[in-house]
Write a structure and sequence with these properties.
- It comes from Cohnella zeiphila.
- Belongs to the binding-protein-dependent transport system permease family.
- This is Sugar ABC transporter permease.
- Its main location: membrane.
- It is a multi-pass membrane protein.
- The mean pLDDT is 87.
- The protein has one domain: MetI-like fold.
- Helices cover 70% and strands 1% of the residues.
- By secondary structure, the chain is mostly helical.
- The chain has a two-stranded antiparallel ribbon.
- It contains 17 helices and 2 strands.
- Helix 13 runs antiparallel to helix 17.
Length: 304
Amino acid sequence: MKGRADWLSQIRRNYDLYLLLIPGLVFLLIFKYTPIYGLVIAFQNFNIFKGIGGSEWVGLQQFERLFHSADFGRIMTNTLLISLYKIVFLFPIPIIIAVLLNEVGRMGFKRSIQTIIYLPHFLSWVVIAGLFVNILSPSTGIVNGIIGWFGGEPVNFFMDNHYFRSVLVATAGWKESGWSAIIFIAAIAGLDPELYEAARLDGASRVRQMFHITLPGISTTIVLMLILRIGGVLEAGTEQILLLYNPTVYHTGDVIGTYIYRMGLTSMEYSFSTAVGLFESVIGFFLVIGGNQLSKRITGKSIW
């Protein structure tokens, strides 16, 4: 009872702050938690005219259909490979950008660089898709122009399964690497400046300061971001791929998100696409838990 009384007393003292929480909580309730009810569609043979209440209950039939589908192995392989490539090749780039920008002394130049590398984030994937379609065009694109200048044959990057995943990784890196560096820049800004002063007095070079002060100082942030990235490994960039791929590269570019889109909206397989989406979410949840435990065991740092 005493704990409850203290809690109520705290609410009375800070009622204005708790009132500010209400819009956010209402938003979460309406747009995040209420739609969870729709997950029952995954266990039904959903009929849009009968609704959730009148549709036939089929249990795990939709999941069995997914696991026995000829497409399951392909979309899982593509999803995991594309996400793995993005983690391996793109995750370190924002860290490198943040560390290098921290070494820039001229604020005007530093802010100019930050503005330039942040800008692509604010462009929609529609704009970026159109931009890279022109850049990589086999007839008029600047990249194929350079290849031709060196005597090579034009490459149709968006219709060649050998290059499509590389295009996805490169375009995602160009768009998001600069923006993703913000959180690491903020983490570096929170480091104690006296550590750098002491290192300089001891004769440490700027490179040694990077490896012995900056990187260890932001290691917790790096681990946090890596765990969150691992949790989203089955979300390989659905919007990006939808705008860049076509049937000729389904073999290497079709992922869970695009498969859900095609089955749910194009083929109107609502129950099946919901089952696929639920499978993706559950796996993502366990990946976050597993990544957190693995990080705690190996590095001693974790989210909780």
